[in-house]
Amino acid sequence: MTKTTELRPASWWRRLCQVTDRLFICGDLPHDPDGFRRMLREWVDAGITHIVDVRGEWSDESRVADKHPHISYAWLPTHDNGGGQDADWFEQGVETICDALADPGARVVIHCHMGVNRAPSMAFAALLELGIDVGDGLAAIRAARPIAAILYAESAIDWFAERSGWTASQTGEARMRVRAWHAENPSDVWWVISRIRMAEAEAA
């Protein structure tokens, strides 16, 4: 298996990554106008109809509406401070994603700043709701986006367990499966973030 440190994280930062036929993950759109237009055009050309932006620090809703008003934009802000994420955040995000996917012509991209933790974790929660197994969901996200750490996956499990009426035993077993998957598929997340920050600084 390719180790995280053998990747070039900056090359994956703003790469549109397809997790399922209609669900994608990415980092955010560039701030500079030319880069913004180019990348948004790439999304449009890929058939993206819905953007789910989970950054707490920024929103591009008005800029997207100005260039491509047909794209639906949902801003569901949250932190990226480690620890956990609130159940309400997952509930709102997954409802938004699944409502969009109810249209067979829809394609949804979930993004945060780097596409490392928040967006992949929301995608994982959506996959759970769509009936995908815990291990299969984590594997699909990592296969599509090798820099995805999915560190809020246990929070997604807690949300889904409560939503689904799982017992404490079922919840604990699912949490252990997430931990075992992370142990078997480690990601040097701080190295990944540092390399993207370096690329970000160089481009500034």
From TrEMBL:
<dbReference type="Pfam" id="PF00782">
    <property type="entry name" value="DSPc"/>
</dbReference>
<dbReference type="InterPro" id="IPR000387">
    <property type="entry name" value="Tyr_Pase_dom"/>
</dbReference>
<dbReference type="InterPro" id="IPR029021">
    <property type="entry name" value="Prot-tyrosine_phosphatase-like"/>
</dbReference>
<feature type="domain" description="Tyrosine specific protein phosphatases">
    <location>
        <begin position="88"/>
        <end position="146"/>
    </location>
</feature>
<dbReference type="InterPro" id="IPR000340">
    <property type="entry name" value="Dual-sp_phosphatase_cat-dom"/>
</dbReference>
<protein>
    <recommendedName>
        <fullName>Tyrosine specific protein phosphatases domain-containing protein</fullName>
    </recommendedName>
</protein>
